[in-house]
Amino acid sequence: MPLWIPITITAALFQCWRTAMQQKLRGLLSVNGAAFIRFLYGAPVAVTFFLIALAVTRTPLPAFSWRLLLFAAAGGLTQIIGTNLLIMAFGFRNFAVGSAYAKTEAMQTGLVALVVLHEQLRPLAWAGIGVGVIGVLTLSLAGRGMRAKEIVAATVQPAALCGLGAGLFLGTTGVLIKIAAAGVPVGSLFVRALFVLTTMTVLQTLMQGSYLAWRDPEELRKAAVHWRRVGWVGLLSACGSACWFTGFTLTDVALVRALGQIEVVFTLIFSRFYLKERLKPGDATGLILVVAGVLMVAISSG
Fold first, then answer.
1. What is the pLDDT of residues 155-191, one digit of tens each?
2. What are the backbone dihedrals phi and psi of residue 38, each rounded to the nearest 5 degrees, phi first?
3. Which of residues 154 and 237 earns the better pLDDT score?
4. pLDDT at 94
5. Would you kindly state where each structural domain of the chain is located, as residue ranges?
6. pLDDT one-digit tens code per residue, 66-104
7. Number of other CB atoms surrounding residue 123 within 10 Å
């Protein structure tokens, strides 16, 4: 089994766990505040991971470059926007379906990577991505039917628009991360991935922290006062991002994002047993399709 497959599955698990915890904090923090804590408390963890990797591999500290800073900052910004849109989607419909809207990210990532990175996927991989998108569509249309009128109605609802936007921005983030990692001249793939993660997370903390200080300083106070509750989000975020970034450096970004749709299965588990939400019969059908698409993507990489 290629190394990127278990790494991506682990990343999806961490991301789902972190997102579920953020959803629990929506009554405590604003959309921006809930997104900010993943960077604020994730940055120290990312720095720690990076320093440990340098010590273990005996790799010298890589030099910063304008290319790294530029694409890390751009990727950080698109991830902030995508995270905010994803959290907004949760406010319109339940956690499981809100997260599923963003899973069109796999298809959108494939298109962005094709144009920007010229990554070519096998037909089976594209078919798997398509099956996954059908699964997402089934989730969004749970209980509504599949006629054209219902499809249009579901696609333009606020949760769908926020989820689709989140998928686009988060998918673009993966492409920018790969470009940034390619600009790191030394170190193993894992060290390079952690270097980009550390740089990007610190920049994100500065960017969104500055915005909150200007527009909503009360959220900064809440993020500091409630550190015991929100700190876990940063830890899970750093662990998940370390896996995502490593996956991006190991293989095509679109393959990683497509396999990452397995997160929807973890979402079902967290939604049912952690957030105590009820799922509709159509949700289960959609999740099965998503899993089928994920398996097709994994097989295509063999």
1. 677 777 888 899 899 889 999 999 999 888 877 889 9
2. -65, -30
3. 237
4. 54
5. 4-300
6. 999 999 999 999 999 988 887 787 777 555 566 667 767
7. 8
> What amino acid occupies position 111?
L
- The C-alpha atoms of residue 139 and residue 133 are separated, in whole angstroms, by 10
The pTM score is 0.84
For residue 24, how many C-alpha atoms fall within 13 Å in the half-sphere facing its CB?
15
The one-letter amino acid code at 242 reads: A
Which residue has 């809100």 as its token pair?
A: 98
Residue 278 one-letter amino acid = R
Percentage, residues of the chain above pLDDT 90:
42
26 and 91 in contact (C-beta within 8 Å)?
yes
Residues 6+ apart with CB under 8 A from 212: 32, 33, 36, 219, 220
